Fold this sequence. Notes:
The chain has 198 residues and is mainly α. Helices cover 71% and strands 0% of the residues. The protein has two domains: 1-51, Orthogonal Bundle (Arc Repressor Mutant, subunit A), CATH 1.10.10; 53-192, Tetracycline Repressor, domain 2, CATH 1.10.357.
Amino acid sequence: MPRFSNMEREKIREKLMQEGERLFTSFGLKKVSIDEIVQAAGIAKGSFYSFYTNKEHLYMDISGNLQQKMWREMDEFLNEHRTLPPRELCKQCFLWMFHQLERYPMLKQVDNETAEHLYRKLPPEVLAAHTRDDSHELIKLEEYGIHFTCGIDIATKTLQTLAVSLLNLQQDQTGDRQIIMEIILDGVLKEIVSDESN
């Protein structure tokens, strides 16, 4: 197992994230190989495994990083719209995130096939860490008066499933996409978000 200083580890990890995002965005998760990733990053294949168990693990790390950026940007949106009723604020928040995906092409490409592939290939602890990160972000929504009626774990998994379903709608080139998204969001949020802020 190669030994790296902390600075070397950080630089290699940064390069893997950068090149991984570029390759995954260009070719999709399934068509990119570890050999292509390490060649682009300029590291040995053995070094890759000092950081990640497989390419799906790298993909999930990149996705998580992009989602964190989006969540940070969402704080400004939430502050500007905090006077909306809680359920409507949550809905507008989701719609805002989906419109922001234009800036995050790798996230925009996620569909059922990609999600199923990740669930098959990723170690359970990586999936659990991703769910914990999402739960942490949902807990922060409570600062804006959004309260989940079903518990944060159920809300997180429900909204993760919803997100993948809404991403699949991107294939719909008709003008109905926005209407369908809003109908689905209204139905789900009615079940899991209290419309009272206290």
